[in-house]
Amino acid sequence: MKYRSRTDIFASILQSANNPKGVGITTIMYKSFLSHYQLKKYLSIMLENDLIKLETEEHLYKITEKGLRFLQLFSNINELIDTTKEYNI
Question: For a designed S-S bond to 8, which of 1, 4, 72, 76 qualifies (C-beta 3.0 to 4.6 A apart)?
Answer without folding.
Answer: 4
